[in-house]
């Protein structure tokens, strides 16, 4: 039997260890700074995707924490199993079999941003081959440029970096989701840029990584459907028109 003093000293340590173990049990989700869908607010993550995420995991009774990283790092963490799920992932034919698609968090049209001095820009990627174009690393936009035969591509870790490259003349244009680029361009200190909408429209989703169990996937999908049926999702979309859902 431990002496009374030793027991008194040991119990706080055991309780602290249990607290750490409980925190460690929280499922890790990852996302990237992609306003207006998900951004770093004054009090932590914010945006339509995050607000929906909070409601879904609460309904599904899942203990999860969201961590925000540059997109390429978040992408690797998900693929390597270091994160269980991810928010704000563009759903494309090339990615369809890579993930289990849990619930939609937005919709967008791709756009190209240029400096006004460049003048009007064609709305087709095939007409942009002479330009140096900035694209988010490991993104669908980067893949679109490659499929269009555009070789003068400069990759960036986030859209803040890409727009800085544009403003300093290192690239001639930046491709990305139109709502995201508009949100970035409206920040204090940003110069007004020319916006050229493209024809490509995509949905944004929350996805399950390889480490998420099928049982948890079912719980999350069912939780989202419950929020749809109860009108919570419709109310949330109405308060976040920037998520750009058409329905």
Automatic annotation (TrEMBL):
Q: Which domain of life is it from?
A: Bacteria
Residues spanning the membrane: none
The UniProt keyword set, sorted, is: Signal
Which interval of the chain is the signal sequence?
1-24
Under which name does UniProt file this protein? Substrate-binding periplasmic protein
**Species classification:** Bacteria, Pseudomonadati, Pseudomonadota, Betaproteobacteria, Burkholderiales
């Amino acid at each position: 039997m431990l002496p009374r003093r030793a027991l008194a000293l040991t119990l706080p340590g055991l309780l602290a260890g249990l607290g750490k173990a409980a925190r460690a049990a929280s499922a890790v989700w990852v996302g990237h700074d992609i306003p207006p869908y998900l951004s770093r607010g004054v009090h932590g993550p914010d945006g339509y995707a995050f607000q929906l995420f909070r409601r879904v995991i609460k309904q599904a009774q899942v203990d999860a924490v969201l961590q925000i990283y540059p997109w390429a790092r978040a992408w690797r963490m998900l693929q390597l199993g270091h994160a269980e799920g991810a928010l704000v992932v563009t759903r494309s034919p090339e990615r369809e079999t890579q993930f289990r698609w849990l619930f939609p968090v937005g919709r967008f049209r791709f756009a190209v941003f240029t400096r006004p001095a460049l003048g009007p820009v064609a709305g087709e990627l095939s007409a942009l081959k002479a330009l140096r174009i900035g694209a988010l690393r490991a993104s669908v936009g980067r893949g679109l440029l490659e499929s269009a035969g555009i070789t003068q591509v400069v990759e960036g870790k986030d859209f803040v970096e890409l727009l800085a490259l544009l403003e300093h003349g290192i690239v001639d244009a930046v491709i990305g989701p139109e709502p995201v680029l508009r949100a970035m361009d409206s920040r204090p200190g940003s110069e007004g840029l020319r916006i050229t909408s493209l024809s490509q429209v995509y949905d944004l989703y929350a996805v399950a990584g390889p480490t998420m169990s099928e049982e948890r996937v079912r719980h999350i999908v069912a939780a989202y459907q419950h929020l749809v049926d109860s009108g919570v999702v419709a109310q949330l979309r109405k308060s976040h028109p920037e998520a750009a859902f058409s329905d």
